[in-house]
Design goal:
The complex is a heterodimer. By secondary structure, chain A is of the alpha/beta class. Chain A contains 5 helices and 15 strands. Chain B has helices at about 15-30, 45-50, 60-65, 70-75, 100-110, 125-135, 145-160, 165, 185-190, 195-200, 215-220, 235-245, 260-265, and strands at about 5-10, 35-40, 75, 85, 115-120, 135-140, 175-180, 205-210.
């Protein structure tokens, strides 16, 4: 018997999901581009799932939409929700049709579509990313950095927390899907919950940051109260507002 | 074991070439056979500072292109038998350098020399990247002002991610901070960052402080490394730096302003 050329296994992955509220491809493309431009490296060649559950209209030029997203260097991997007609269209385009499964509860939590503006095209929402029926947990990985992060350097921790035991220089950038802990001076930027986790926090021993952000909401140093300068703080999100609190 | 040292900064005009000349001369004077390479292809200066500009026949690019061998291109210093200069080419640009070519020259120098000093060009482009790529140690030349400090920080980041040592997961490059053009009187007035300010921003160890001095300009114009002008503050400061690099415990000087009496009684 010859050696097996393949093995079929099941895996579970977290995929960014694009929830659509409008069937106008041009509008979607425009708003998605604005999102991507904020942080190009995060989205380049990233797979994405199209979620039609919140889409009112039954019609959508799916082929044009896939082209538009591909042009933005993202890779459409599958669709979820929507009418059977849309599913047929997706199959024709070579896309997988994913079951709604565990994601239903998130839909109930989601705000009413009318109330949302640009944020509707948010491409990442780690909380509704579980696509498998079994609901396997994804691997959680943290990263610890012990050397200073210098101007011009970027560190990004996927699916976990980023912990640094040294200073973050001006012009350096930290990003994490989870929390960020800085045991040293933060003079650069720190972005926690970059895939949309609004519960992520930043803990910092010495705040001199250029910018801090959680789940896309940010404040720049100008807007940080001067009494917090060089203080030990925690930073979190309440009602879509960044709160910085002395520890 | 040969040590390869890069003298770098990111920013231009901070004193890299002056430092390369005096530092390599200091190592050579201490009895170590030292080669100093000018990586600033197209804008060569090191030969001028070392006063050998009239003796350049072949250069670094000729050696890389195998148009000359290393011994033909190396210029022996007339004041110190242990010091050899590999000048940059003035008629070419940085693209004439290649990572393999530089590696080959450095490997060949390692057979004969105790120290190889690489004088980096300013910027973070090809010349600067190649100058630091093979380094074991890095001397970061910084002026006490914000733009120079930030550029040094950037360069430190590059050293820790783009060097051979980092790519091969070896022990990282040892980094030393050298503060040049330091003027204690202006620091006192608050016009200049202090040693402590710079150290706090960069969080690294201080190799030395070179005071701002007219002697350095005069020495450069005369084609003599300032370290040879023994009585001047700048020469003593560079000598301290060399001694400290070689492992001697030398206290820091030239950080505080000294009055006349201080100079009489102080070290």
């Amino acid at each position: 018997m010859s050696n097996p050329a393949l093995e079929l296994r099941s895996g579970s992955y977290t995929l960014p999901t694009l929830r659509l509220f409008d069937n106008n491809v041009d509008v979607i493309q425009q708003q998605l581009k604005e999102k991507i431009d904020l942080s190009p490296s995060l989205f380049t060649h990233s797979p994405v799932v199209l979620d039609f559950q919140a889409l009112d209209s039954e019609t959508l030029d799916l082929a044009k939409l896939v082209d538009a997203i591909t042009n933005l260097k993202m890779c459409v991997s599958g669709v979820r929700g929507g009418s059977p007609e849309l599913h047929d269209l997706a199959t024709e385009c070579g896309l997988a049709v994913l079951s709604i499964g565990a994601a239903v509860k998130n839909i109930e939590q989601a705000p009413e579509p009318e109330k949302q503006s640009v944020r509707q095209t948010e491409t990442n929402d780690s909380s509704d990313a579980d696509l498998t029926v079994t609901g396997d947990a994804i691997m959680f990985t943290s990263e610890t950095i012990t050397a200073p992060v210098r101007s011009g350097q970027r560190r990004y921790t996927r699916y976990g927390d980023l912990i640094t035991l040294a200073q973050i220089s001006e012009g350096a950038e930290l990003m994490a899907d989870g929390n960020i802990h800085i045991y040293g001076a933060l003079r650069g930027r720190a972005l926690a919950g970059v895939r949309g986790d609004t519960t992520a926090r930043i803990y910092c021993q010495n705040l001199q940051a250029e910018l801090v952000a959680i789940a896309g909401h940010f404040v720049v140093s100008e807007d940080i109260d001067s009494s917090l300068f060089k203080q030990s703080v925690q930073i979190y999100l309440t009602d879509q507002k960044i709160v910085i609190e002395k520890l | 074991m040969t040590r390869t040292i890069v003298i770098t900064s990111g920013k231009g005009g901070v004193g890299k070439t002056t430092t390369s000349a005096s530092f390599s001369m200091g190592l050579a004077k201490s009895g170590h056979k030292t080669a100093v390479i000018d990586f600033d292809v197209g804008l060569r200066n090191l030969d001028l500072i070392l006063g050998c500009e009239r003796r350049v026949v072949y250069d670094f690019v000729n050696v890389i292109n195998e148009e000359a061998n290393l011994n033909q291109a190396l210029i022996r210093d007339k004041r110190c038998d242990n010091l050899f200069i590999l000048p940059a080419s003035q008629t070419r640009d940085k693209d004439a350098l290649s990572i393999e070519g530089v590696g080959k020259v450095i490997d060949e120098l390692k057979q004969d020399f105790d120290y190889i000093v690489c004088d980096s060009p300013a910027g973070i482009e090809k010349g600067a990247m190649l100058a630091m790529y093979y380094a074991d140690d890095a001397i970061i030349v910084t002026n006490p002002e914000v733009s120079s400090v930030r550029d040094s920080d950037r360069m430190l980041g590059i050293l820790s991610s783009k060097s051979r040592r980092s790519e091969q997961n070896e022990e990282p490059i040892s980094e030393y901070l050298l503060l040049t053009r330091y003027d204690p009187s202006r620091v006192k007035k608050g016009d200049m960052l202090s040693v402590e300010d710079v150290q706090e921003i960069l969080s690294m160890d201080l190799l030395g402080v070179i005071p701002e001095s007219q002697d350095i300009l005069n020495a450069s114009n005369a084609g003599e490394p300032v370290i040879l002008q023994g009585k001047t503050n700048a020469a003593q400061a560079y000598q301290d730096v060399v001694d400290r690099y070689l492992g001697e415990d030398v206290p820091q000087r030239f950080i505080n302003q000294k009055g006349f009496l201080g100079r009489l009684f102080g070290g």
